[in-house]
# Entry
Amino acid sequence: MEKDLLSRNGFKFKKQYGQNFLSDKNLLGAIARDSGAAGETVLEIGAGAGALTLALCEIAARVVSFEIDRSLQDVLKETLNGRENVQIVFRDFMKEDLSSLEEKLGKYLVCANLPYYVTTPVVMKFVEESKNCRSLTLMVQEEVARRFCAKAGTPDYGAVTAAIARRGEAKLLRKVSKDMFTPRPKVDSAVVRLDFQRGGFEVKSAECFKKTLRIAFSSRRKTLENNLMAGLSLSRGEAKELLGEAGIEEGVRGETLPPEELGALSDHIFDAFGE
# Structure
C-alpha cells in the first residue's frame, strides 16, 4: 500500500492488530484469482488498507470485508472509492455469530491476508462452524501454512492439520517473502487454500472428533494408548481394546495416524462413551 495514502490519512500501524499490508498489485491480483473469487460472494477478514479488497472487487460479484481498526475508515474510503460491490464492516470478526452472517451471505468463499495472531482461531471458526463456506484462501505465516498442509508422521502434523482435513483439502499455493509487506514482518508468509468442496470425511460427532484430537496429540512423546488412558480415564486393557476395535496397532503415536484413521477412532470412542 502506498505510504503516502496512509500518511495522508493520518494512519499509524498498531502492533496489537498485527497489521502488515501488501501493495504489489500483481501479487494481490494473483491471490484474488487463486481464491476463485470471479463472480462469487467473498468474505474478507482484515481489510487493512484495502489493497486485497480492491483486487477482489475487480472480479467478485460481492465483497463483504471485516476490519477491526476504525482508524482505517478514511483510508478504505479512498482506496475503494467508486466500488459499489463492497461492504466494509468495522467489527471484530471473531465476535460474529457465523450462522447469522451466513444467512445473509448465502454460498461464499473467504479470501484474506490474516493477522498472524488470529490465523488459527479464524480458521478453526470456519472449520467448526461454517455451513456455506466453499473455501478459504489465506495469507498466513509460512510455517503455519506448512502445518495446515502437513502429512501424518511429519513434525508439522498436528491436531489443526487433522481438523482441517475433516472438512476438506489444504494446499500451499505460493510463498511470499517478508520483504513484500509494510511494515516488514520477521518471517516469510505463504498463501494456502482450504477447499471444503474437495476431500474431507464424515464423523459421527464433530465434538467427539475434536476431543479425540486433543487426546491423541496431548503428549507427542507418549503412545496413543497412554494418551487414551489419561484422556478417557481408561485402564490399559480398555485402551488396548478400544484401539483394537478401531483397527489401530499397539504402540503407535497419535501423530503417525492419518486424519481418516483418527476419525475412525473418534467414531469408536463416540459409540463407547458418547460425547
